[in-house]
Design brief:
homodimer; about 110 residues; mainly alpha; Arc Repressor Mutant, subunit A; elongated; DNA-binding
DNA sequence: TTTCTATATTGCAATATTACGATATTATTT
DNA sequence: AAATAATATCGTAATATTGCAATATAGAAA
């Protein structure tokens, strides 16, 4: 009869997946890197940096924002996008805990 | 004239995005967690644990594997899937470096 | 060699993502 | 109040993902 199926996914699973999904496109990884590299984090020129149109970049920014990876700040006419350090820390800790769990069970069949 | 567009994405950006994309689905996050939780890492019963058909689980496993998140080991009739600790460490370090970079530039406009 | 068990592949329908031109919005400057 | 500049939204075409039933494959057991 086997184990019973979990009817759905946990909230943590859903929310983690949403963050990873947001990061799962080269353009969005590039946006993250550009935000970190840029002198100030006034980031309207992401559009100039990426090989994509303005609407497309705007859409990618929206996805990063709604997943909580970045935050936007209205700065006069422009908008300043920055990384959400709380989310980044959460993700770092998540992978840290995975490593801990891997090391705990040293029944390594692979 | 503004900055010139990067013609394409870097290999690092593409490869990071592929790993995140592989993790960007609740079923695949659940698979990771199950592999870690399970007594041994003989994992045919992932199918019994998840609310998905066997072909669908197999497909998710394939995606995780080809992104280098997990590895599969033939074990007689069954296959044992385990996390690739090298990849997990790489991702942990990636977020660690993001945090470092955030802290370096304390010109926080957000 | 036949049967059984575990996993993978194929084919396909439903849905989601990606990208962009056109247009809307909002704040600034004139 | 225009005109300008920066960003967002809409509509839509092309493509990719998700999920499953049906089927294939490969090893173990009989």
């Amino acid at each position: 009869m086997g184990a019973s199926k979990t009817d759905e996914y946990s909230q943590q699973q859903i929310s983690l997946a949403a963050m990873f999904k947001a990061l799962g496109h080269p353009a969005r990884v590039a946006i993250i890197q550009f935000i970190l590299k840029a002198e100030s984090c006034i980031c309207g020129d992401i559009v100039n940096e990426l090989p994509l149109s303005q609407p497309t970049v705007s859409q990618h920014l929206k996805e990063l924002k709604s997943a909580g990876i970045i935050q936007g700040n209205v700065e006069g006419n422009a908008i300043c996008y920055c990384l959400n350090d709380k989310t980044v820390k959460l993700l770092k800790d998540y992978f840290g805990s995975l490593i801990d769990q891997i090391q705990l069970k040293n029944s390594n069949c692979c």
